[in-house]
Amino acid sequence: SGVWNFGSLLGLCLITQILTGVFLGMDYTSDISTGFSSVTHIWRDVNYGWLIRNLHGNGASFFFICIYMDIGRGLYYGSYLYKETWNIGVVLLLLVMMTAFVGYVVPWGQMSFWGGTVITNLLSGVPYMGNTLVQWIWGGFSVDNGTLTRFFGFHFLLAFVIGGGTVVHLLFLHETGSNNPGGVNSDGDKISFHPYFSYKDLLGFVIMLLGLTSLGVFSPNLVGDPENFTPGNPLVTPPHIQPEWYFLFGYGILRSIPNKVGGVLGLLFSILVLMVVAILHTSKQRGLTFRPVTQFLFWTLVGDMIILTWIGGMPVEHPYIIIGQIGSVLYFGLFLVLVPLGGWVEN
Amino acid sequence: MGRHFGDLAKIRHVITYSISPFEQRAFPNYFSKGIPNVWRRFKSSVFKVAPPMILMYLTYTWGNHVHEQGKRKNPADYEKDQ
């Protein structure tokens, strides 16, 4: 069905981000004294620079829309039972998150600087070597020029690491072939890629590019933070430091645990929990198509992630604190307890 | 690498029949059966999708409401003011 389009769409997103990113890199300077103004220069002076920057920034949002949908498809239809493909997919998710994080620091706006400061400081929770580790990552004693230059380099490099990971992801997928909404073996029912999937993927590309360009030209700042229109200033802290929307659910989980190391572990495990889903699969059926109890739990997970996304963008005040805590417990409870229980009940 | 046509599965005793595209309608009963089918598909999933979404919405509105209330002054705190 249509939800199988997100794999090829992710490939398109990667190519779009690399192309727009390479062009941005031709005029960007990764020094704190010129970084922010080089982005302004790209926007105002470079031919179609504004469009390239638009597509790159909003392209990141579409990347995450596609990756969350791809994961959702995988969870709903039990595609995670292709364990190698799934686990490489989790690695790809982590790589995409790392790329997006360092990429957001690059424009050196207020939120770039302060978001970078908050998240890199989390590494100080590592026992014994925490502070040394943070300063090693920073290349100094705070987020400064050393951090910016290397983060730009990491951002450029990681894009191609993702490309490599994608090849391995597809290598394993092609060993088994794709799953399907019925969750049944389809070896006896194959059709050629062209014209069926070539045209299906092309339609998906057209719809996604339509969405991306619409967002880019009609409402380019819809999901952005206005703080990033101000150059990064270590002497002025924004009142509400928050990441882009695609990280808010993790940010909500991080802040729900009133302990630095605990919060960091919660954030880490909110992604790594995906790696145990296959081990906890209890149902005799592969997907949720004929499993109403677990379907309800799936949609509860979707609602919970939306709540956690909302909470991640709210100040840490009542009643947002308790909602975030309940949401975090529910998130892990669904993966580790409720969904396996649902499968067992349905059996 | 991977699976190849001719090496996927062996299926015997399956007979398929087909009619030429020129002998049939392109979109038969598209609205007369399609619209009732949409309703059937909606009915079969609405009670699994809607409750979590409704709960989410209620949590969102309740949370914002309680937060707004918390920012207001409590008149009882100022009763003894002159």
UniProtKB/TrEMBL annotation, chain A:
<feature type="transmembrane region" description="Helical">
    <location>
        <begin position="293"/>
        <end position="314"/>
    </location>
</feature>
<comment type="similarity">
    <text>Belongs to the cytochrome b family.</text>
</comment>
<dbReference type="InterPro" id="IPR048260">
    <property type="entry name" value="Cytochrome_b_C_euk/bac"/>
</dbReference>
<feature type="transmembrane region" description="Helical">
    <location>
        <begin position="320"/>
        <end position="345"/>
    </location>
</feature>
<dbReference type="InterPro" id="IPR036150">
    <property type="entry name" value="Cyt_b/b6_C_sf"/>
</dbReference>
<keyword id="KW-0813">Transport</keyword>
<keyword id="KW-0472">Membrane</keyword>
<feature type="transmembrane region" description="Helical">
    <location>
        <begin position="151"/>
        <end position="173"/>
    </location>
</feature>
<dbReference type="InterPro" id="IPR005797">
    <property type="entry name" value="Cyt_b/b6_N"/>
</dbReference>
<keyword id="KW-1133">Transmembrane helix</keyword>
<dbReference type="GO" id="GO:0008121">
    <property type="term" value="F:quinol-cytochrome-c reductase activity"/>
</dbReference>
<feature type="transmembrane region" description="Helical">
    <location>
        <begin position="86"/>
        <end position="106"/>
    </location>
</feature>
<feature type="transmembrane region" description="Helical">
    <location>
        <begin position="261"/>
        <end position="281"/>
    </location>
</feature>
<feature type="binding site" description="axial binding residue">
    <location>
        <position position="169"/>
    </location>
    <ligand>
        <name>heme b b566</name>
    </ligand>
</feature>
<dbReference type="GO" id="GO:0005743">
    <property type="term" value="C:mitochondrial inner membrane"/>
</dbReference>
<feature type="transmembrane region" description="Helical">
    <location>
        <begin position="60"/>
        <end position="80"/>
    </location>
</feature>
<dbReference type="GO" id="GO:0046872">
    <property type="term" value="F:metal ion binding"/>
</dbReference>
<keyword id="KW-0408">Iron</keyword>
<feature type="binding site">
    <location>
        <position position="174"/>
    </location>
    <ligand>
        <name>a ubiquinone</name>
    </ligand>
</feature>
<keyword id="KW-0479">Metal-binding</keyword>
<feature type="domain" description="Cytochrome b/b6 N-terminal region profile">
    <location>
        <begin position="1"/>
        <end position="182"/>
    </location>
</feature>
<dbReference type="Pfam" id="PF00032">
    <property type="entry name" value="Cytochrom_B_C"/>
</dbReference>
<dbReference type="InterPro" id="IPR048259">
    <property type="entry name" value="Cytochrome_b_N_euk/bac"/>
</dbReference>
<keyword id="KW-0249">Electron transport</keyword>
<keyword id="KW-0349">Heme</keyword>
<dbReference type="GO" id="GO:0006122">
    <property type="term" value="P:mitochondrial electron transport, ubiquinol to cytochrome c"/>
</dbReference>
<dbReference type="InterPro" id="IPR027387">
    <property type="entry name" value="Cytb/b6-like_sf"/>
</dbReference>
<comment type="function">
    <text>Component of the ubiquinol-cytochrome c reductase complex (complex III or cytochrome b-c1 complex) that is part of the mitochondrial respiratory chain. The b-c1 complex mediates electron transfer from ubiquinol to cytochrome c. Contributes to the generation of a proton gradient across the mitochondrial membrane that is then used for ATP synthesis.</text>
</comment>
<keyword id="KW-0999">Mitochondrion inner membrane</keyword>
<protein>
    <recommendedName>
        <fullName>Cytochrome b</fullName>
    </recommendedName>
</protein>
<dbReference type="GO" id="GO:0016491">
    <property type="term" value="F:oxidoreductase activity"/>
</dbReference>
<feature type="transmembrane region" description="Helical">
    <location>
        <begin position="202"/>
        <end position="223"/>
    </location>
</feature>
<feature type="transmembrane region" description="Helical">
    <location>
        <begin position="118"/>
        <end position="139"/>
    </location>
</feature>
<keyword id="KW-0830">Ubiquinone</keyword>
<dbReference type="Pfam" id="PF00033">
    <property type="entry name" value="Cytochrome_B"/>
</dbReference>
<dbReference type="GO" id="GO:0045275">
    <property type="term" value="C:respiratory chain complex III"/>
</dbReference>
<dbReference type="InterPro" id="IPR030689">
    <property type="entry name" value="Cytochrome_b"/>
</dbReference>
<feature type="binding site" description="axial binding residue">
    <location>
        <position position="56"/>
    </location>
    <ligand>
        <name>heme b b562</name>
    </ligand>
</feature>
<feature type="transmembrane region" description="Helical">
    <location>
        <begin position="6"/>
        <end position="26"/>
    </location>
</feature>
<keyword id="KW-0496">Mitochondrion</keyword>
<feature type="domain" description="Cytochrome b/b6 C-terminal region profile">
    <location>
        <begin position="183"/>
        <end position="347"/>
    </location>
</feature>
<keyword id="KW-0679">Respiratory chain</keyword>
